[in-house]
User: What shape does this take?
Amino acid sequence: MLLDRSSRVSAGLLAAALASTLWSASVHAADTTPAAQLQHWSAQAGAPGNAARGQAFFNTKHGGEWSCASCHGTPPTTQGQHANTGKLIAPLAPAFNPKAFTDTAKVGKWFKRNCNDVLSRACSANEKADVLAYLNSLK
Ligand code: HEC
Assistant: This one.
């Protein structure tokens, strides 16, 4: 009887653990797409992203030590490598990385951090739209 009761308790705990795992997974689940990101930043910019401009932006240093390509590679269709830490980075171009640009919070976090590292400021909506147009064009 005692055993029975404790096994029911642990089943309950297991269910709770499972539910919280599923919940946190859903928080990080895909909530956007590369196409939606391009549309979003183009709308913010008031003009469609331009792939050629995005490519130039991506490969250029903007007064600092790094370009986007320093860590993401060029073209960013294969694994990149962090210019400082050597940490491997999944390909940034969505056609080569199904997870790229599928999580709004992640995109926001890294745009903020990486633009600051490269330009010492945030990227404008125009620049983000251009980068997305470039990345989405890589097949
Ligand atoms: C110093 C190294 C470094 C530089 C320079 C850099 N990045 Fe990144 N970037 C990273 C790392 C590390 C990640 C996280 C990769 C991961 O965890 O999947 C990342 C992720 C991103 C993501 C998130 C992609 C996704 O998974 O949805 C975007 C967007 C991004 N970078 C854009 C840029 C842009 C634009 C530039 C140039 C302005 C740039 N990065 C320059 C290191 C860098």
In short: Residues 66, 68, 70-72, 82-84, 89-90, 92, 99-101, 106-107, 110-111, 114-115, 117-118, 131 surround heme C (CB under 6 Å). The two ends are 62 Å apart (CA to CA). The chain has a mean pLDDT of 87. The CA atoms of residues 77 and 98 lie 12 Å apart.
